[in-house]
Amino acid sequence: MATSHAQRLGRWALAPSLVALSGLAFVPLAIAIYFAFLRYNLQSDNTGWYGLNNFYYFIHDPYFIKDFFNTIVLVLSVLVITVVGGTALAVLLDQPFWGRGIVRVLMISPFFIMPTVSSLVWKNLLMHPVFGLFAAIQKFFGASVALDWFGTVPLLSVIIVVSWQWLPYAALILLTALQSLDEEQKNASMMDGAGPIAYFRYIVLPHLSRPITVVILIETIFLLNVFAEIKVTSVGGFAGNLTYLVFSQLNDATDIGGAAAGGLIAVVLANIVSIFLVRIVGKNLEN
Amino acid sequence: MAIAPSRRRKLVVTLLAWTIGILMFFPIFWTAVAAFKTESDAYSLPQNWLTTPWTLENFSIVQERSNYLLYIRNTVVIAFVSTLLGLAFAIPAAWSMAFAPVATSTIKWSGWRWLATVLGTAFVVGLVLYALGWDLTNRSAIGFLALAIVLIPALLWVFSRNTSDALLWMLSTKMMPPAGALIPIYLIFNRNGLVFKDWGWIDLSEYNIMDSFWGMVPLMMLLNLPIIIWMLYTYFKEIPAEILEASRMDGAPLWSELTKILMPMAVPGIVSTCLLNLILAWNEAFWSLNLTNKYAAPLSFFISEYSSPEGQFWAKLSAASIMAIAPILVVGWFSQRQLVRGLTFGAVK
Amino acid sequence: MGTIKLSKVRKAFGDAVIIPGADLEIREGEFIVFVGPSGCGKSTLLRLIAGLEDVTSGSIEIDGRSVTDSAPAERGLAMVFQSYALYPHMSVRDNIAFPLKMAKLPQAEIDAKVGKAAATLNLTEYLDRKPRQLSGGQRQRVAIGRAIVREPKAFLFDEPLSNLDAALRVNMRVEIMQMHQNMKATMVYVTHDQVEAMTMADRIVVLNRGNIEQVGSPLELYNKPNSLFVAGFIGSPKMNFTENNTIGVRPEHIILSDKHGDWEGTVKLSEHLGSDTFLHVDGGKCGHFVVRASGESHFGPGAKVWMTPMPDRIHHFDRDGRAIRK
Questions:
Q1: Residue in C with minimal Cα distance to A5
Q2: CA–CA distances in Å: residue C268 to residues B59, C114, C261, C263, C280
Q3: Is residue C307 part of a domain?
Q4: C209 and C269 share a domain?
């Protein structure tokens, strides 16, 4: 415990950060609320009180349901892929083998690639239906026409790209957590007659439950807001998520009021998801 | 079999792990290959990647045609300056939370107190505006009032929290979807939007912070500030409080305590935090794509221009990509272990 | 110079009251020891004096001046921490020089004082090493050097020897006592080891759950303990209590005989230390006794003995644990 003198100093030391973050947290919120109730389009001069119409039109936008659905599918799929895959990778990399350091470096690299690069590389060099590598592989196996990934299965393609980026994250976190597992526990369980599967199920998995919780929470925060992968590959019309929808209100429709309302809806939905998540998994978190 | 079972197992694991590692890394490798091919060769890659000649031309073409160095400069400026700025805010903040924590909230909020505060703020601000001669039915007056009603009670709430609540609240600001803030920030940054317009008593309409460092740097700093504070907080908590107490007994004022004792001891933690923040700022895409265009456009924006280009562009895209990702890849490789703490808000170390 | 006065000092952390109310006057130049079991509040009391914790109520005066609201640096005290709290990134020289630098003394003066302190503590050849290159005892001395160099009104020691091994502990104990003799400064010393307290102190403050049970010289506490707690805490091995905790007598004050005595018992265990033998005797209804026999005793396990307390060495206690003096 600190003295009151130190605490007073502490308040002053903390104040700038609190003010700055409050500014970021509350000012845009207030502004968004304000504009959400206005009819305000950058291309027209007709502005005025609009009531709840912005919200209404946003929810009834032809893309809304689809984008809402896409958001959920995207988040859930990537979560499943990264958590399951990440656990498997972590277990694998925890084993002794030759060249472990190098493999680890290879495996975590995708996470550090900026999303615009990864999206365009996957779309063009790999998934392009004519010149891409996947096309070449398909033709090698006898297909006459290769799959146009981003053209025909845009959501799946986006899921693949995002998973590729986030799988290393999960693997890295879970591997770090695994390495804090006491070797003694493994020895004790072997003495107790547990095989590798039982060891995994009864010792490893419970130990990982907390880090997995954290991974799910953090990934959800970021996955709800996937943007670059969708915009840069131009699949917003088919595989857009809510974030993209808000963006398109601003970008395509130049509708400030609509975008503000949409943004608020996105905020509300994200908060519901977060509260839900934190409540379910909150007891596993530190704090 | 002549190989012992554990050795056989190690062989299997090695093969499996290397396969997966290579697969995961493969797209990056492939990009690097394409970067060193001519443009037309890049399109025939899958078949001919070993037979076609290697060339460095793409790297110079990218620089000549689009002044690549400018984008690198922008990215570097935004990433480094926002990191330094963030440290300036975060080190005192993390110090206060780690070493001078407040156990109980100073104001216990109840429904009535909220109501009173909101109404009180509305009243006082309204009075001030009226005294200043503002037309209270004017939209900007209403806007101002609304802003004050939201901000002031919120600030009061934030400042009255105890330390662990404040930490959690900071975490929650990171959870805010950027989509929600897109419009407000767009309007604030823009010329003739919310802030940079003719106010009458001062004319700011000539200015804006769209597509400028004045906008991007503070924004990036604020977005990552919770992570920086959290990461530093967990590192600081590992420093024995007794050493700081000893410095207090030795007569060190707060400034000396921070700079001469805490920071030298926390160097590894501070470095890890800086690296993480560099990575996050460098790779940031949402705001870079929406708020920049030319002058402050970082690499992520530049690469995004290749989404609808003219003519053949794969080799150039690859070259540009390799140059854009290489620094961060290297940083990530070397600091992977330390980053885990920041990437999980301190929950996993 | 170096008097400390605590008046009705109370410390609570939220609802937990650590120190209900302490009154104490520390005299100039005395070596006073706070002793008590873990959690009794002795370290808290020390930290209150140092200014590292705020008092919840009450006042603290140093040399007649109230310091209750003063920051640690303003109180003119120096503290040696249990873990030494050396600055790991600074050399020994810089560690010792740090408080002088904070006081903004001229460099020449700083160098002189550091040199002198290092010489006194035999640290001169280690001046340029970092703490991690030093042994426990050396680190201890650096911590002491850092305190000496400030020429404080009083020294505060928070269990400084508990991290050292037994042999080193004995040596450092002597060194600290010599330091006290040479400097004649007030020293407030916290320990849980009553042997340290007995050997080093001018006066001892016995604490029990935040309350000051008794203050007095070692011999006073040994001969005239005010309560069951103090009687049982001071003296090793512990005082024997019998007849429902109303009678107490120390192991060294029991006369053994194989013919007659007040209490009868059977020897269960004998501990031979060479200079003494301690017999653990089962006294049946009277309870369990530890008796000191000098030299090698001929009583072994299983032997029947008779114990008689020396008449002027019997302590009487009432039902509340308070000593009754006749």
A1: C71
A2: 91, 57, 18, 15, 6
A3: yes
A4: no
Nearest to B193 by CA among B174, B207, B214: B207
Q: How far is B242 from chain A (nearest CA, A)?
A: 11
**Residue A287 — pLDDT band, cuts 50, 70, 90?**
very low
Expressed as residue numbers, the domain containing C141 is 4-223
Chains contacting A with at least 3 CB pairs below 8 Å? B, C
Q: Is the pLDDT assigned to residue C271 strictly greater than 90?
A: no
Strands ordered across the beta sheet of C304-309: C254-257, C304-309, C263-272, C276-282, C288-294
Q: What is the mean pLDDT of residues B277-290?
A: 92
Arithmetic mean of pLDDT, C81-103: 90
DSSP A208-228: HHHHHHHHHHHHHHHHTT--H
Query: C263 and C211, same structural domain?
Result: no
Residues of C in contact with A4 (CB under 8 A): 54
Kindly report which listed range (A63-67, B165-169, B204-208) carries the lowest average pLDDT score: B204-208
Contact B243 C50 (CB under 8 A): no
Tell me how many domains chain C contains.
2
pLDDT class of A134 with cuts at 50, 70, 90: confident
Q: pLDDT tens-digit profile of C60-83?
A: 999 999 999 888 888 889 999 988
Task: Tell if the CB–CB gap between A3 and C13 is shorter than 8 Å.
Answer: no
Query: Are both C60 and C154 inside the same structural domain?
Result: yes
Lowest model confidence (mean pLDDT) among B197-206, B216-225, C62-71: B197-206
Is residue C292 in some structural domain?
A: yes
Measured in angstroms, the CA of A238 and the nearest CA of chain B are apart by 16
Q: What is the ipTM metric for this complex?
A: 0.86
Same-domain check for residues C196 and C93: yes
Give the CATH number of domain B68-105+163-307; options: 2.40.50.1020, 3.30.470.20, 1.10.3720.10, 1.10.10.10: 1.10.3720.10
B109-146: pLDDT as tens digits: 777 888 888 888 888 887 887 787 777 677 677 777 77
pLDDT band at A2 (very low <50, low <70, confident <90, very high): low
Two structure tokens written together for B131: 């005294």
- C54 at the A interface (CB within 8 A)? yes
Q: Is C51 in the A-facing interface, judged by CB distances under 8 Å? A: yes
Check CB contact of C12 with chain A, cutoff 8 Å: no
Closest chain C C-alpha to A3 CA, distance in angstroms: 5
Q: Touching check for B263 and chain A: CB below 8 Å?
A: no
Q: Where in chain B is the domain with CATH 1.10.3720.10?
A: 68-105+163-307
Give the whole-angstrom CA distance, residue C217 versus residue C228.
17
In a domain, C235, yes or no: no
Share of chain C above pLDDT 70, in %: 99
Checking if the pLDDT of B205 tops 70, the result is: yes
pLDDT tens sequence across A160-198: 999 999 999 999 999 999 888 877 877 887 777 777 888
Alpha-helical regions (H) of chain A: 4-36, 53-59, 64-94, 100-108, 115-120, 133-140, 149-152, 154-178, 183-191, 196-199, 205-223, 228-232, 236-239, 242-251, 256-281
The angle at the Cα of A278, spanning B239 to A239, to the nearest 5 degrees, equals 115
Domain membership of residue C232 (yes or no) is no
The CATH number of whichever domain residue C310 belongs to comes to 2.40.50.140
Question: With an 8 Å Cβ cutoff, is A4 touching chain C?
Answer: yes
Do residues B224 and B92 lie in contact, with contact meaning Cβ atoms separated by under 8 Å? no
User: pLDDT at position C326, please?
Assistant: 67
d(CA A262, CA A247): 9
pLDDT value for A201 = 83
Between positions 45 and 64 of B, the ones with CB within 8 A of A are: 45-47
Look-up of token digits 């005192």: B92
Closest CA to B180 of B251, B108, B286: B286
